Amino acid sequence: MTAKLAAILTEFNRGSCYHLSDLARHAELPMSTAHRLVYELTDREWLTREPDGTFRHGPALERLTYDVPPEPTLQERGPHVVADLVEVLHRTVRLGVLDEMEISYIEKSPGYTPVTSFGPAARLPVHATALGKALLAFAPAETVRLATSGCLAAHTRRTLTRTDQLLQALHTVRHNGFATNHGELTINRRAIAVPVLDANGLAYAAVEVEVETISPVAVEEVLPALRLAAHALNRELHPHAHHRGARQHEQPPPIEQSASATG
């Protein structure tokens, strides 16, 4: 029996899909035997029957042949990181990504409410949020140019509406390794954010926590947890990648200043 099953499965090393009659002929099995064994393999997900009647390798066989398990996604792991940070810091936490010059984000507040989902309605401006500045500060030069070339809307009197102001803020973020929002989107909302960096030092996500005030004490209270969460998330998403270490923000790539920038 084992030899017959092996004869059928071995055929899929030579091609991607077969009709039942082809499998019977190539495996040198009677049609009745091939029919019984193939459908037993299909029931156990070793094979999959296509709408046209052919058979191809199924998910059980694919899992067996994976060299490494599939890496998790940000959509899968991000909510867990947000929930863990809320548990530790007892503050509202957000995780955001850059999406067409806006921030797509998820968030959770302290309590029993679940983490929100990424969605079209969950959008924040890049220039007026800690999330956005953390992402832009470690973005490719072309992304920074696009984000600073248009009109920077004023949401409050504290919003950075000039290109030179925003570029200087991004330099500060790169030097410090974290970004702040001091009432720039909503006058009474303040936050601190850190980037989630890939092996090349570019941010593909950022994590933000709300604070009562932007001060050295507030930064010291939340920054270690934020950095640890960002590092852990990157390690979960890219377990086989080379990481440059937690101190990579000390030597950031340069940001091109515009001709009008005054610093």
From TrEMBL:
Cited Pfam families: HTH_IclR, IclR_C
InterPro entries found in the cross-reference section: GAF-like_dom_sf (IPR029016), HTH_MetabolicPath_Reg (IPR050707), Tscrpt_reg_IclR_C (IPR014757), Tscrpt_reg_IclR_N (IPR005471), WH-like_DNA-bd_sf (IPR036388), WH_DNA-bd_sf (IPR036390)
Region named Disordered: 240-263
Protein name listed in UniProt: IclR family transcriptional regulator C-terminal domain-containing protein
DNA-binding as UniProt keyword: yes
Domain IclR-ED residues, every copy: 60-239
Domain of life of the source: Bacteria
SMART domains the record matches: HTH_ICLR
This protein's UniProt keywords: DNA-binding, Transcription, Transcription regulation
Organism expressing this protein natively: Pseudonocardia charpentierae
